[in-house]
Each structure stands twice: as structure tokens, then as C-alpha cells.
Amino acid sequence: MKLPQPPLPRSLQRRPAPPGDGTGPNGDQSPPTLKDQAVEVPVSVIGWLDERSGASPFLRGFLYRKVPKGTNWFYTLGSASMFAFLSQAVTGVFLAMYYEPDPSRAYESASRITNEIFLGELVRGMHRWGSTVMILLVFLHLGRTFFFGAYKYPRELNWIIGVILLVLTLLMGFTGYLLPFDQRSFWATVVGVNLNSSGPIVGPYLADFLRGGPEFGAYTLSRFYALHMLLIPGLIAALIGAHLYLVAKLGTTAPPWLKAEKSKALAKEQV
């Protein structure tokens, strides 16, 4: 027994032609041209994917949602932070194609990216300054959330995820600072790890983990490279997904200077 196909969303349904619009003897529709078939291909592909994944209800709930009055440009800081992360990921992939995480060749590979690879200086500059921009945007986004009171019930979990994302963003900048492996980055990393070692209880263990041993050695650079390229970006991507889900589920808060409008029924009861 063959089950009937579920109906497609209205946006994906083919629009019928008006009657009498064809070129046949009885006003029938003429066969589709090559241009019409080419236009229908993306719609058919999207319909095929939606029929098998059922993604349209989720996308409608995620994209078509109400926003409070008073929404302004401050609410775009979260999207800007995510765009900065995507930019860092794309430029980081291109840099990883030419970078060698070896103490004897790391500095030469970084110099080769800047001086010899086509557009290497541009991509490396975007990645370098993009890290600063991303940290600044995440700070501003958390500041906006705090001053607007968006961390209160029922959005406490989203606030905690945002704080963890800020810490991971700082860690990603710290682990990436060593990768050029010049004098400045090396000694700055030595100072940063030594500061971690002075922390109570877990400080020495954290410093040994970052160094890959009791002292800076050949494994330190590969340890920082693995953290910077694999572990931290993976955690950030997973937490961004959870963050966006909670934003879509709970919605956004109105600015604190706007008072909530009373419903007509409640106003009548008070009168």
C-alpha cells in the first residue's frame, strides 16, 4: 500500500498558470521551456529535501517569530558575533592549509603565508584582527544582555551559555597568539601560562596541560594548535547552536525603558 505524499508548503507549491494563457488551439498551456525548467530545479530540490527532512516547520518557527517593540541595532550584536566566528573559521581553514605546527618551521610557514601565498597577507590580517573584533563584539553583546535585563528568568541558561562562550573566545585568542612562534608571541605565552600556574588548586595542572609538560617544549606548539583548531571551535559551534535554539524558543526581551502594554480585558477588570 502506497502512502499519500504529504502536502508541500505553499511557498514551494507550483503556481498554476491562468486559464487561456497557453498557445494551444483550446488555450491549453504550452510545454515548459528550458528557462522554465531551470527555474523549477531549485524549487524541486528544496521540496525534495523538505519532504524527507521535515525542516520547514522548524525553519518557520525559527525564522518567522515575533520581536518586541523597541528592537534596535543593539540586538544585532549577537548576529555580528556569530558572523565574526564564521569569518574566523573560514580564514582559519585557509591558513591551516599552509601553516606547519612545528617549532622549527612554524615561523617560516607564517612568513611564507604573508609574503608568498596569493592573498595570504589579506587572509592572515582578517584572521588576526577578526579575533579582536570577535572578542569586542561578544563583550558588547553580553553587556547589552546585562543592561537590558535579558539574563533573568527564564533566560538564565542562555546567559550561562553566553558567559562560557566569552571564556572560550578568550581562550581561542590566547591559543592562537602563539602560532606565529616569533619572539613576542612565545614570551607572551610564557607569561600567560605562568600566570595560570599561580592559580589556586587547578592552576599548576592547567599550566602543565597547556605546556604539554613541566616546561615549554616541542609539544607545546602542537598542543596550542590542536586546542585552537579543533577543541575550542567545536565547543563554540555546539554552544552557539544551543544558544540560538534557546533564543528561538524563549524569544528576545524588550528594552527596559518600554513598559508592557496591558491587555484590554485586564484594563476593563481594573476599571
In short:
With 271 residues, the chain is mainly α. 64% of the residues lie in helices and 0% in strands.
Defining key terms:
Cytochrome Bc1 Complex, Chain C, mainly alpha, single chain, 271 residues
Describe this entry's structure for a reader.
- The structure is a single chain.
- By secondary structure, this protein is mainly α.
- It is built from ten helices and no strands.
- The protein has a domain at 73-250: Cytochrome Bc1 Complex, Chain C.
- Helices cover 64% and strands 0% of the residues.
Helices and strands in order, then pairings?
Layout: H1 34-53, H2 55-63, H3 77-96, H4 106-115, H5 120-147, H6 156-177, H7 183-197, H8 203-211, H9 218-250, H10 264-270
Helix-strand sequence: HHHHHHHHHH
Shape: globular
What is the mean predicted local confidence, pLDDT?
A: 86
Strand element count: 0
Q: Which bin fits the share of residues in helices?
A: 55-70%
